[in-house]
């Protein structure tokens, strides 16, 4: 019996089939259109997300002749993106506002000036930033009259919530990990918070019921897949990746290096409140009990390499960065602070701008490429220091994401963090995590620990740098960052 996964991302959605041993034996993907109706505005058409996710799942099942062989469905999704739809028809009532959208920057800044951030951080574990859903919902209710006019017909939810609604024909739920990113949830209590709903003017009745990440969550309409399928696993993408990387014990840490980089450290049953501008978040909820994590996000990771390629024409393709970095013995004193869209955790300086420093006539294209790749380990080192300051010490870093196919980066992370870096052979950890949850939720596995067998073989990169070389790099980076923040 197989596990079906819908992995709905920011630029594409896909369906994947997994066997109980973790073997992925099929994948079907469709690109999603992002709409940019103005500077800083990013929207999706939720109807397109639904139609393409459904089409991927149906095509995959048909191609693989998997009908009748699927035990359960798991869903993972881009977090924070918020959908508005009609309870009656299931159709979107407005565009979905994407996590990257900055339209509420001023509103968030105003509340920050009024001193509201500590209250929000205490309840939600998050910061006052447009990134999270609450300010986007408030904006939508204020600017799109059809949402107010909809009254009781209005449903609001993150993307997994919308997909479940459409798949089941009307079940309105959201899993605890996705709910924890809306900035409307009291993450200690595990419920929507009245004070936060009041602050942002969000009607309680429009929000979903918060449910576990695994279990008998619902059943798909029989006509969709030739018979009902149990929906048994739900989690936001970064939490799903942490599960896919088997981060189950306090201190277990994963880093996903794609367009941006997202680091999560499991903190167990304890909700740790960051003093270093990291986010506290729900790692998963099972049987009504929550596990927590600390999270640090770096805005610019793979997008830096893409920019070197497309913006500067310095690289022919992303992989060339590896041979260039290897072609020089060191960075030659060149440092790149990649604040191309501000600096994320632990600095949270949206207005900071990038800098390339330490150039001389001896600097070449290889030094710049090397400085760009080194920036991944430098930024991760800053996060490791912040996590340690919050009492979440790392003992190993489990990595995945498109950048991590680059062996040089994996080794540099091990060297600069002075930690073992572990890279699974099967790197689609987000989808794997959703499959593991669906396996647990459908009773295929008794626990997540039992499901961890799906993860398969890993490669290890061990630190091999002298502490003098590491210290010199960190000192150079520290000076470069200080100039940017200056
Ligand atoms: P996302 O899931 O965020 O869309 P991916 O995980 O697919 O991103 O990773 C793609 C990113 O990784 C791109 O920004 C690309 O520039 C970068 N990338 C891909 N291959 C390499 C490589 N060999 N070395 C460095 N960066 C790479």
CATH class of the domain at 2-238: Alpha Beta
Query: Which whole number gives the mean pLDDT?
Result: 95
Total strands: the figure is 23
Number of helical segments with 4 or more residues = 16
Order of neighbouring strands in the sheet with most strands: 17-18-16-15-21-22-23
Q: If classified by CATH, what would the architecture of the domain at 2-238 be?
A: 2-Layer Sandwich
The 3D shape can be described as globular
Q: Strand pairing plus helix content: what structural class?
A: alpha+beta
**How far apart lie the N and C ends?**
58 Å
State the fourth-level CATH superfamily of the domain at 2-238.
ATPase, nucleotide binding domain
- What is the strand content? 15-25%
CATH topology of the domain at 2-238: Nucleotidyltransferase, domain 5
Q: Are any ligands bound, and if so which?
A: adenosine-5'-diphosphate
The portion of residues assigned to helices is: 25-40%
Outline of this structure?
With 486 residues, the protein is α+β, with helices and mostly antiparallel strands. It has 16 helices and 23 strands.
Description:
With 486 residues, the protein is an alpha+beta fold. Helices cover 35% and strands 24% of the residues. The strands form 7 sheets. The protein has a 7-stranded mixed β-sheet, with helices on both faces. A 6-stranded mixed β-sheet has the order 3-2-1-5-14-13, with helices on both faces. α11 packs across α12. The longest helix is centred in the last third of the chain and has 25 residues, at 365-389. The protein is globular and about 65 Å long. The model has no long low-confidence stretch (mean pLDDT 95). The protein binds adenosine-5'-diphosphate. Residues 11, 258-259, 302-303, 305-306, 318-319, 321-322, 401-403, 405-406 line the site of adenosine-5'-diphosphate. The site of adenosine-5'-diphosphate has 16 residues, from α10 and α11.
